[in-house]
Amino acid sequence: FQYLKRFDSGCNLDTFCYEAYSVEGSPAECLQQFLLHCGIMDPSWSELRNFACFLNVQLRDCEASVFCNPDFVQDTLQGF
């Protein structure tokens, strides 16, 4: 949710890192973001859950990757 919210606001996601147990927004805002970004017109709860789990795994891997670390790559992969 935090990544999607910042993406919609036009924030630079390269420098953002999720902090465990940090809470932003309401459950309604979270659901709205998932509905906007999941890519299915009328998703079921299981489809929303699968989308959220998939996105979570991908973003966790991205944060852990040295190739996505802005301190390591600096500006060599700008926009990647």
From TrEMBL:
Primary gene name: Rnf213_2
Protein name per its UniProtKB record: RN213 ligase
GO terms classed as biological process: negative regulation of non-canonical Wnt signaling pathway; sprouting angiogenesis; ubiquitin-dependent protein catabolic process
Organism (species): Anseranas semipalmata
Cellular compartments per GO CC: cytosol; membrane; nucleolus
InterPro entries recorded: RNF213
Highest taxon of the lineage: Eukaryota
The organism's taxonomic lineage, starting at the top: Eukaryota, Metazoa, Chordata, Craniata, Vertebrata
GO MF terms, alphabetically ordered: ATP hydrolysis activity; ligase activity; ubiquitin-protein transferase activity
Keywords tagged on the record: Ligase
